[in-house]
Amino acid sequence: MQDLLRRYGTGLTGAFILLTAFWLLVLIVLPNLYLLENSFRPYLPRADMGGPLDTYSLNNYAKILTGDSPTEVFGFTVVLPVHVKSFVLTVGYSAFVTLISFALAYPLAYYLAKVVQPKSLPTLFLLLFVPLWVSEVLRSFAWFIILSLKGPLNFTLLGLGIIDEPIRWIAGYQSIVIGLVYTYVLFMLFPIYNAIQSLDTNQIEAAEDLGSPWWRTHWRVILPHAKPGIASGAVMVFMLSAGSLLVPVLLGSTDSNWFTQVIQQWMFEAQDWNTGSAYAFILLILCTVFVSLVMRVFRVKLSDIAK
Amino acid sequence: MHKTRNFLFHLYMALFLFYLLAPLAVMGGAAFNDSRFPSILPWRGFTTTWFSQLLADGRMWNAFVNTVLVALAVVAVSVPIGTAAAILINSITGRVRTVLYGLMVAPILAPGAVIGISTLLFWNQFSVPAGLHLSVLGQVSYIAAFVMLLVLARLQSFDMALEEAALDLGASHGMVLRRILLPHLYPAIGAGAAIAFFQSIENFNVTLFTRGNADTLTVYVFSKVRTGITPTINALALIMIGVTLMGAVVYELRRRRLERLRGE
C-alpha cells in the first residue's frame, strides 16, 4: 500500500481504490446482499411494501418443499417436492455431464500433451478453438437441429437401416446432457492439457522402463500430476452446466425442468422476484459448496482453479 | 504396440474433431437448404432466400447494434476496473489479499442467472429500470475479473526498479503510470479488452434477466428458436461462424509469420 502511494501518489492510488471498490461493492457485494435480503421478504403489491405485511420470514425458501411429485427410482417410488426433484436432478445430471466430459477429454488431453507431433499442435488447437468462438446459443441450436425428429441424425440412421422408426431424441433429460457435454467439454480439455503438459516426459518413460503397465502409469504418475487441471475443469463444467439456462430451454423436453428454468419461471412468469431470489440463492449456495468440496478433495487453491 | 496405440489416438482425435465441427457444418449447411424447417437432410435445393430474409429483419439489426454497443460499453468499463484492481492487489499481501482475490474471482464461478437477478434487484431499489445498461453492469461484474487475471499475470514480469529510476529522475506520478507501467501492461490490457468484448457478445444468462425489453443477438436467436424457427437463424449463424473463422485464420497466419521472422 505504502509502496503504491510512493510510486503513483495519492490521486492515482485513490483512483485505483475507487475503481476497485466500485467493482467489489457496487457490482458484487451489495447486489448479492440485496438478493439475500429480498429472498426473506414476501412478494407484495407495491403499496404494501414497507408496511406491516413486509416482514422477514423463510416462507420463500419453504416454497421449494411444496407440491409432491412421485418419482420412480430403481423400482422404488420416491415422493419428492417438485422443485426439490428439479434441484436434485440438476445436480445429478450436471455431475454426470462432468464425468462424461472428463472421460472424453482426458485421453485427448494426454494425446495433445504427450503423443502428438508438436508441429501439428497449433493447427489442432485452432480447430479445437473454433467451437469456443461460436456462441453458446448457436452451439445448442445446432444440436436442436440434429436431434429433431426429422433431423439429420434420424434421417441418416433411417437411411442406413440402423433404425426403422425415427427416435425421439429430445425426450427426458438426455438431450440436455448431450447438449451440455458438447457445449462444455472443451472447458475440461484445456485445463487438463495444461496440467499434463507440465509433466516431465522422462517420468512416464521411467515408469514404462520399470515395467509399469500403461494403466498404472496413468493411475500413479499422470493422473496425480493432472489433478489441479482436473479440479479446474470439473469446477468449470459443473458450474456452467448447473447454471446453464440456454441448453435446458432449447434442448429440454416437456418432462425436463432444470433448476435455472424454475428460477426463470418465478422471475418472469410468476413475476415473484422474492421467491426468485430465494431460489437463486439456493443455486449460489450449491455452487459455493461444490467449489469448496472440489478444493478440499483435490487439495487445490482458488487461484489454481481460476486460471 | 506403440503403433496401434498411436493409431487409436489419431483416430480418436479425428472423431473428436468431427464431433466438434460436424454440428457447426450441419447448422451452416441448413442455411442454404430450401426447406422451411432448418435441416440439411433431406436436401430440397439450394437457395439464398434465408439470407435476404435475414437482412430484411429489422429486429435482428436492432439486436445486432445493441450487442455491439453493450460489448463496447463492457470493454470501456471493465478494462479500467480490471487493470486498477490488478495493480492494487499486486501491492497487497497476506489475508486481505486472499479475501479480495476471492471476491474478485468469485463472479466467474457464480451462475449467470444469480448475477443477473442480483443486479436487477439491486438497481430496482433505486428505481433504475431493467435495460441494457443493467446488462452492462451485470456483465462487468464478472468480465472485469478476466481482465484483472490477465493484467495481474503480466505484472509479475514487471521490473519496479524502472519506476524508481523514473521517480528519481523527477518524473511525476502520472508520467510513471503513463510512460512506464501502462506500456508494459498494454499486451495484457489488449488481450483483456478482446476477451471482454467476446465474452459480452456471448453472454446470455446475465443479459436475459437484466435486459428489460431490449434484444441482443443471443436473446434474439433464443427467442426465435422458441417461437418461430426458420433457417434465417442458420444464415445468421453461418455469418457469425464465418467472421470468427476468418479472424482465427488471420490470427494464425500472423502468428506463423511472426514465428518464422523470429526464427530467421
N/C terminus separation of chain A = 25 Å
Structural class of chain A comes to mainly alpha
Helix and strand succession of chain A? Answer: HHEEHHHHHHHHHHH
In this structure, how is the largest beta sheet of chain A organized? Answer: 2 strands, antiparallel
Distance between the termini of chain B: 39 Å
Helical residue percent band of chain B: over 70%
Radius of gyration of chain B, CA atoms, in whole angstroms? 23 Å
Known CATH architecture of the largest domain in chain B: Orthogonal Bundle
CATH topology group of the largest domain in chain B: MetI-like fold
How many discrete structural domains of chain B?
2
Task: Give descriptors for this structure.
heterodimer, A: 307 residues, mainly alpha, MetI-like fold, B: 264 residues, 2 domains, 11 helices
Structural overview:
The complex is a heterodimer of chains A (307) and B (264). With 307 residues, chain A is mainly alpha-helical. Chain A has a single domain (68-305), classed as MetI-like (MetI-like fold, Orthogonal Bundle). In chain A, 71% of the residues lie in helices and 4% in strands. Chain A contains 13 helices and 2 strands, in the order ααββααααααααααα. Chain A has helices at 2-39, 59-62, 82-115, 121-133, 136-147, 152-159, 174-197, 201-209, 214-243, 246-251, 259-269, 273-298, 302-305; strands spanning 68-73, 76-81. Chain A has a two-stranded antiparallel sheet. In chain A, a hairpin with a 2-residue loop joins strand 1 and strand 2 (76-81). The longest helix of chain A is centred in the N-terminal third of the chain and has 38 residues, at 2-39. Chain A is globular. The relative contact order of chain A is 0.11. Chain B is mainly α. Chain B folds into 2 domains: 63-218, Orthogonal Bundle (MetI-like fold); 230-264. In chain B, helix 1 (2-29) crosses helix 11. The longest helix of chain B is centred in the N-terminal third of the chain and has 33 residues, at 58-90. Chain B is globular, with a radius of gyration of 23 Å. Classes of the chains: A mainly alpha (307), B mainly alpha (264). The interface between A and B is large, with 90 and 96 residues.
